[in-house]
């Protein structure tokens, strides 16, 4: 009779205090900027962005906006328990839908793919790695893949979404 692999006991967040602070500041700051931009758009204070009616962009915004604070919350709370696994699966699903939706968003650059689409590919490659390392019980690799995925797909790509000409930039600063 074989026994199921045992999961490690829930542990506290194990990044250094400086790394934890940087993650909180970057993720929290970007979350506030996204809320500000979305609020301006919702209140009619931002310039018109008719392309937002595009289904792919609507799906993208509907999945990426909650994924940012959810991912940050998961990183900053206890790991290994049922709540962590459920929220992690939700986050990965949001990220997967977000990445796929971006492949259909090409309103910048006359319909061509832009450099920011590389983050979509990296996300779609990274998600199976995150799942595989968790199932293997390789928590160090799981954590490393997730940190790269969060920083790359959420913070860096999210920061790029505020470049001139992009929807979030127009909503926040236009």
Explain what the structure shows.
- With 174 residues, the chain is an all-alpha fold.
- It has a domain at 50-163.
- The protein is 68% helix and 0% strand.
- Mean pLDDT is 87; it is low at 8-13.
Chart the SSEs and their pairings.
Elements: H1 17-42, H2 55-76, H3 82-102, H4 117-136, H5 139-160, H6 167-173
Helix pairs in contact: 1-2, 1-5, 1-6, 2-3, 2-5, 3-4, 4-5
Which of globular, elongated, flat, extended, rod-shaped describes the shape?
Answer: globular
- The CA-CA distance between the termini, in Å, is 65 Å
Q: Kindly state the number of beta strands.
A: 0
Alpha-beta content class: mainly alpha
Strand content: under 5%
Major β-sheet annotation: none
Low-confidence region ranges: 8-13
The helicity comes to 55-70%
The DSSP helix count reads: 6
Descriptive labels:
mainly alpha; 174 residues
Provide a quick synopsis of the model.
The protein has six helices and no strands. The chain is mainly α and 174 residues long. About 3% of the residues have low confidence.
